[in-house]
Amino acid sequence: MATHNGSEGLVHIGTDAVGELKSWSFTENATMIDTTVLSGAAQTFSTGTTSFSGSAECFLDENDTAQTALTVGASVTVKFYFEGAASSDKFYSGTCLVESIDRSAAMDDIVGVSFSFRGTGALALATVS
To answer: CA quadruple 38, 44, 47, 49: dihedral positive or negative?
Structure first.
């Protein structure tokens, strides 16, 4: 079984790595369609459409190309790497709309920014060539 350190994770927007990355996550979902008939003793379901959403948290870097490409409403290609970006490493890729951006600052802390994405289309597992 393969295991991966969180520190191996990367997020790319297009071909650019997001700088100052602290964490990322994404969730895949499927709509469940209720197919239970009136006389059924138990609920039954069929799979409907799928969707995905995700987020990335960073230290704010206004000179980072990937961070500046993330504007609210922008359509971007996002790639989530969980084991690095070397040849034969796996990653998930999809087109997303930037749903929200949250910037925060606190005394004795570094200014942070969080980006939330909503997938449009399918999320695909790929291999770095």
So the answer is: positive
Q: Are 101 and 53 in contact (CB under 8 A)?
A: no
The proportion of the chain whose per-residue pLDDT surpasses 90, expressed as a percent, equals 91
Helices marked H in 1-129:
65-69
pLDDT in tens, 21-31: 999 999 999 99
pLDDT per residue over 101-117, tens digit each?
999 999 999 999 999 99
pTM here?
0.88
The residue ranges of DSSP E strands in 14-111, in sequence order, are 16-17, 21-34, 45-59, 75-81, 90-104
| Cα 20 from Cα 57, distance rounded (Å) | 9
Backbone angles phi, psi at 107, to 5 degrees: -60, 140
